Structures are given as structure tokens and as C-alpha cells.
Amino acid sequence: AAAIGNHEYNYGVPYLEKAVAEARFPLLSANTYRPDGSLKFKPWAIVQKRGVKIGIVGATTPGVMVWDAENVKGRAELRDIVPAVRTAVTQAKSAGADVIVVTVHSGLEEPASYDTVATGLPSENVSARIAREIPGIDLIVYGHSHKEQPDLHIGSTLLVQPKNWATSVGAAHLTLARMGPSWKVTSSRGETIQARGRAESARLLAVSERVHTATRTYANTVIGNTAVAWRGDSARLKDTPLIDLINEVERKASGADLASTAAFTLDASIPPGPVTVAQIAQLYPYDNTLRAVRITGKQLREYLEFSSRYYTGVRDGKPVTDAAIAGYNFDIISGADYTLDLGRSVGSRVTSLTVKGKPVSDADTYTLALNNYRQSGGGGYSMLKGAPVVYDRQQEIRQLLIDEVQSRKTIRPEDFFTRNWNLDYGPGRAARVESSVLPPGTRRLRIIATNDFHGALEPRRDNAGARSGGAAYTATVIERARSECAAACESILVDGGDQF
Fold it and tell me: pTM to 2 decimals?
């Protein structure tokens, strides 16, 4: 079984419904409702293994209501996870479940990336709350926050989070004992198994070969050329041509005064030579569409101040980032010249802000191009709430970038790059093997877990060029985890959402 993740909504509700109908396993979400208030998807399922009934409950972060507001409008409503899971757990137990597993697309307890007050939405990351507030849960497999947690116990509940992008698999080991007519978990432990260094699964490679070959052919299509290297490894520290490429394409398409984007990954780069679709997809990996809003000078300043939260200050002459804030929530704006003083507290860091050489006043107005995720409040940019939308043609930003490279044939940094922002860091800124021997009357269950797969068929390269992750490697880990368990225990596979 698998939980439905927020990215499953990126392609529209009808597409998700089709996927749910075609899947050979249950896709679950206990907190998703139709407009009439009825449950839209199955909230729980029971899997039986050697007489042990395993109840699996799924749930989805309600942030979908912000990030995919247009897709779910009039079609689905995502409500508070905790009460919905509580109800589903009770129902699964009433149906005879001996073991309760919750697979939830929600982080542990990180702050919500959206403003819960302004949006009126429940919290984004509540896995720890589920463990604390709902009795009788044996295991929580959680995702969404792109972190890794091999073995965490809150009370008697085990929590496991495998890493995103198919880089590790979670394995939860539960020991069960017969107690009267049912089975009870007597002990549990978790671990994560890295996909790197494993042999690829021949079976998965064979199944995916045709479509994957076609996809690779498209991804490797040459769409232009460049004579120089475009690097993104320092894009959150200084202005770079690579980020200005995104922003200037946004401004050109929308006609906006300003444009914003994030450096989604610091691994993105375009080396000298042919430019491919894959390189643009690495630079802009999401299916965001382009919008533009009208904002005031006050909102612009608040936007930049909020973005600067990514940095906590300066230590030993270097900026220090906040590990709790994702890099993709540090936005960079083109069209305005500004300085962020990291030695100051958030709210007073914008020490210089001009547009076309004129200092920005609170009452000034500008049009700002940005993606639909950010415009709808994603990342907590609540100062944009109510800003009038002046441009929305449902154009994918990634495709606009591809079209720009194709039309120019050769891209040059000087055609896009204008150094317009800087950071001021002035002085003083400052693997275990299961035993097959069990006491009489006991059984062992292994829950194998994945989450945030993000369609990662191929391994990804880091800055050092090392390949990690990928579906085929991960499949091998899963198969090995199953085979190791075959003689000593039963196994099931659950996924925490965002499979794409």
C-alpha cells in the first residue's frame, strides 16, 4: 500500500484518480474528502500474512490546498491529518487488524512551509503528533520532508523515514506474539538501507526499458549550445547567470517588472558544449507554471526579508544557513537591486533596495513574475496573499526555458546576467541479519518502506560525480530485504507518497 503524496496532485485530480484505479495496490489517504464531505480515497486497508492482519492507514499533507489549489478546487479537500488518522486506526482495528502501520506523507514535526494562520490550514508535518496522540499505532512510515530517520521511538510507536530520490529503503522489524485470539507487537526496531553500491534489479530494468529509453532519448535531445560553463553551486551566495536565466525568461514571458526563483539544487550546471533538455530539467526540476502578481514596495521588502531567513547569520566570516529551512525556499529576485545584511535580524536585513535606480517606497507598485507554488503561498510567503494575479497562461516554466534555448540556439551569460544582489557578511557577523530462531508462539514482520521516489528511474550525480539512488538499485534493496526475511519473517512494502 502507499500513501498519496502532495506531488501526486501536480498533474491534476483526474490523472490521480486514473492512477488510483489502475494501481495493483491500494493508494490511501484518510484525510482527503470530496466536496460533499465523503471520503475521496480509501483511508485504510488490511493485508493478511500467515494469519496476521496488518492494518495500513494512509494520509496526505494538507499543504496540497496551497500548492495545488487550482488542481483541487471543486474536486478535493484535504483536512487535518491527526483526527482523520485517529478515525481510520479505530476502523482498521474494528475490522480485525492485529498490527497498525500508518504511512503518511507528512514530516516529523518541522514548521509548516505555509502560513497556517493566513491559509487556515492544519499543520504540514505531524508524524510525531500522530505517534503521541493516537494510541495503538505500531509503526509510522513518514515522508515529505526529504530527511532520513532509521529508528525513532515515541512511546511504543516506531517511526522510520527512508531518504528521498530513491536513495535508501526503510526496514522496520516487528516481533509479534500470540495473545489470545490476536497478535501483538512485542518489540520493534528500524533501519535504513542505502541503495548506493547495489546491483540493479534486472526485472525492473526489463519492465521499464522501452519507456525509459524513450524518456532518455528526449532528455538527451540537444536544444542549443554554449561556449562557457554555467555553474549553480554558489547560487545562494551570489548572483549567477544560471539563476538569471530563469528569472529573465520569466520576465520576458510575463512582461513583469521583477521575477523570482529559487536555486532548487546546487548541483545544476551547464558545461561548455551542447545544451540538453536534461540539463534544463536539472536546473528547473518541477512542473511549476508561470504567474505574475502586482505587489507593493512594502510587499517586495517583506518578501526579501522572509527569504533571508534561510541564513541565521555569519560565523568565522561565512554565512550560516538554517537547517530547518529548505534551500528552495530562499528566493532570488531579478529587476531590483538589493543587499541583505546577514549581521542584522530578519526584518531589518534589506539595507538597500532600488528598482531602476530609484529607492523603493512602501507605496510603489510592481509586477512580479513567479511560479504558481510561490504565488499560492507555498514556502510560507504569506505577504503575497491577496496580491492580484495579472498573468497566468498555465505555461510550464521549464518548457519556457527549453523554448528560450531553442530559439537562441547559442546561450551566452551576458544575454541574461545582471549583477543585482549581494549578501553582506561584514565583520563580527558573526546491516543486521534476522535470527530465524523465535520463541514458540511468536512471529516476525518486516515492513519495507520507501517514500518521495519522485519518479527517480535513474541514479543522480552529486557535485563529485558519484551516482546514487535510482529505481533499479532501490528495487534490488527491496528484493534483498524480502529474500532475507523469507525464512524468518513475513514482509510487506509501504510507500510514504510522492511516487509521481
Answer: 0.73
